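Re: the 180-residue chain
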Amino acid sequence: MNYDNPLLPIWEFYQITGDCLKVAQRTINRENEYFMRDTGFIGKSIEDATDKIVKSRRETEDYVVLSLWIAFERFMFNHVQEAGSILLEKHPLSFSQKLFDKLTDAVEYWKVEDVLDMFKNGMVSTQLIGDAKNIKKYRDWIAHKNPKKATPSKVTPETAYKILSTLMYEIQNLFSLEKT
């Protein structure tokens, strides 16, 4: 994808963290105390240490999905605000400016699902929007972990990155086409 993707640094962080966890697991499996010194793995059994690494991997995956969603949401709101700037070209300018300011402030409080729905009707794939909403459900569960609500289907960082990057590309492409 040939655009400035704000998800890329998060994705790279996830890949590097995964590599670090692999190295830690290999070090533990070989019981290499030299590389384990000054870590919390000293004195732990291989099973205990492996357990901690597995839990860390799961938590990292959830936090990466959460981070990817946050970056996507900011991207989307920024594009909606940018689309509203056309108001500044309308007369009377004093009213247009007030309307634009109101839009800019209010968009931060809109439901993300409603903003996503604005891209339906042939602008962006309905399936892609539905997939993004599923990521949002999982993101909400990660952030709040409400025991009274059922756990939604797990979303992997790979899936979230692919879906959100594609959706961002389509949104950005939509806005660039409208400018020409």
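Residues 46-84 form the longest helix (39 residues).
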